[in-house]
Specification:
elongated; 4 strands; 5% strand; mainly alpha; single chain; four-stranded mixed beta sheet; 368 residues
Length: 368
């Protein structure tokens, strides 16, 4: 176990880097815990929705009445004509937050993205509107509008209170993920680079066991570093997130975290395949981690990001980690994000394997 013991000593050598990143996380946690007092109610009230009313070509009094109420609530409404399939495509392309398809005088079909906060809000408003309208009748329009305004105000307040707690817990986990990403993509390539130094390289090449055994010890050392740091940081974070995630939801968040750490582990090995300079390792890992955190919603909540930033962030596993935490109330809502993160992890490991085979001088070569 010469390689593994050497790896452990190199981890000790790079301990100041790990401790400094841990200090950064403590500062971020303090800022989140003490200063995250955003006006969530104002955020919900001031965020207009992009909605579409789809008609079948004929006039529809119910649709007109509903669209007037939505405009009065401050939302942007487009009158169009589309099928259910076209509506789902428009939602997928983020053209609208919701599409309401009217047929004659029936209650409309709401087409939304259930993983989107905006889509859930639009559906909630529509359900409230048509439920109260059915009870009061269209002849009591003034009473209907007054009751709707009061009901929507209460709904927004409850959503703000619940959303504030959830967003704080998500912010803690997002900061945790950022530090894990930073530690892994910096320290793992730095340690692997150390094995290319003349003395260590000669010692590893003269070791009395096959190259594959040496590779397994490198993998074991890297896994110990990445997952060990992840567990340590999670234990530090646990007292902070317990008020926000409990019971089965905490377990789901933990599963999400494990899959994300696996993807980060694979990404760190990809770095080993083409980064050969210590300064380049530090610079690229810092810039990539920070940029990924910004566009993925680690520092700015995802609902507040622009569509361009969100579209760009979907090429990074951090986006899906944060998105899954925002919808951790059920496995069904999290499942797509969990599977995508698993796919990222497998892809990164495959890419690292490919780089190792193509580059005989790779520091993390699986076929050294």
């Amino acid at each position: 176990m010469i390689i593994f013991r050497t790896y452990l000593r190199l981890i000790q050598k790079h301990a100041p880097i790990i401790v400094s990143y841990l200090a950064i996380f403590v500062v971020l946690a303090f800022i989140i815990g003490g200063g995250r007092e955003t006006e969530d109610q104002d955020l919900y009230e001031s965020a207009p929705l992009d909605l579409a009313i789809a008609l079948d070509g004929s006039d529809n009094a119910l649709a007109d009445e509903f669209s007037v109420w939505l405009v009065g609530m401050g939302h942007r409404v487009s009158i169009t004509s589309m099928t259910e399939m076209e509506a789902r495509e428009a939602i997928f392309n983020e053209m609208f937050d919701a599409v309401f398809i009217f047929q004659e005088d029936l209650i409309p079909l709401a087409v939304i993205d259930w993983s989107s906060t905006s889509g859930y809000r639009a559906r909630s408003f529509a359900d409230t509107y048509f439920r109260y309208r059915e009870v009061l009748g269209e002849e009591n329009i003034n009473a209907l509008n007054a009751l709707l305004n009061e009901s929507v105000a209460v709904t927004l307040l409850k959503m703000a209170e619940k959303g504030g707690d959830r967003d704080t817990g998500v912010a803690f986990m997002s900061s945790l993920a950022y530090i894990v990403l930073l530690v892994s993509t910096t320290v793992v390539p730095l340690i692997s680079q150390s094995f290319t130094e003349p003395a260590l390289h000669a010692r590893s090449q003269l070791s009395p066991y096959p190259a594959r055994a040496r590779t397994l010890e490198m993998l074991l050392g890297s896994a110990l570093l990445v997952f060990g740091a992840a567990v340590l940081l999670f234990l530090v974070t646990l007292p902070m997130i317990l008020p926000f995630f409990q019971g089965a939801q905490l377990f789901r968040v933990g599963v999400n975290y494990v899959l994300f750490v696996g993807a980060v582990f694979g990404l760190s090995y990809v770095f080993c395949g083409f980064l050969r300079n210590r300064l380049a390792i530090t610079a690229i890992s810092t810039v990539l981690s920070l940029g990924m955190a910004f566009v993925s919603g680690a520092f700015v909540p995802q609902p507040m990001l622009g569509k361009t930033a969100l579209a760009l962030s979907k090429v990074f596993p951090l986006y899906y980690f944060i998105h899954a935490n925002r919808f951790s109330a059920s496995w069904e809502a999290m499942a797509p994000d969990l599977l995508i993160q698993l796919g990222f992890g497998l892809f990164f490991l495959f890419l690292a394997l490919l780089l190792s085979r193509l580059g005989s001088r790779s520091r993390c070569s699986l076929f050294a």
